[in-house]
Amino acid sequence: MSDLETATVDIDVPFFDVDSMNMVWHGHYVKYFELARCQLLEQLGHDYQAMFDAGYGWPVVDMKIRYMRALVFKQPVCVAATLTYWQHRLKIGYKIRDRRDKTLLVRGSTTQAPIDLATGELIAERPAVVGRALASTGIE
User: Fold this and answer.
1) Which residues lie below 8 Å from residue 42, measured CB to CB, with a gap of 6+?
2) How far apart are CA 37 and CA 8, in angstroms?
3) Are 51 and 57 in contact (CB under 8 A)?
């Protein structure tokens, strides 16, 4: 895989993401995945604005999260998003690691499927515009 297929973002867990036990509430991990996914899509040259401009939406149709260890307030973490499948769906794998000792804390994946924004219908194949964007980064 090329370097373009993985993107990372660094986060220091903010106070407003933790619950009364000082742990990140489980729903916020989705937000961390989204931050890394946006960075990855931008790197690939086909971010959400480009998708919208091309007339396609890419809703998440499946998500999996495995929590190995809770994140806590002020913990410095790195969220990595890796494109693992790009034919008729986009599948992205995620890993959240502690930036200090590289301990794997959370892993997961999302699958996104293309829809035609004009009709709302699911498209059974990858739109050509996505193929061109990926080919321009050397991924095809």
Assistant:
1) 7
2) 9
3) yes
pTM of the complete model: 0.89
How far is C-alpha 101 from the chain's CA centre? 23
CA-CA-CA-CA torsion sign (60, 1, 7, 52): negative
Convert the pLDDT of each residue in 45-86 to its tens digit: 888 888 889 899 999 999 999 999 999 999 999 999 999 988
What is the per-residue pLDDT across 109-139, written as a single tens digit (0 to 9) for each? 999 999 999 999 998 887 777 777 777 777 7
Count of C-beta atoms within a 10 Å radius of residue 118: 8
| Spatial distance between the Cα atoms of 92 and 46, rounded to a whole number of angstroms | 14
The predicted structure's pLDDT at residue 1 = 41
End-to-end alpha carbon distance in the chain: 11
Q: Which runs of consecutive H residues, i.e. helices, occur in the chain?
A: 28-43, 48-53, 128-136
96 - beta bridge partners? Answer: 79, 106
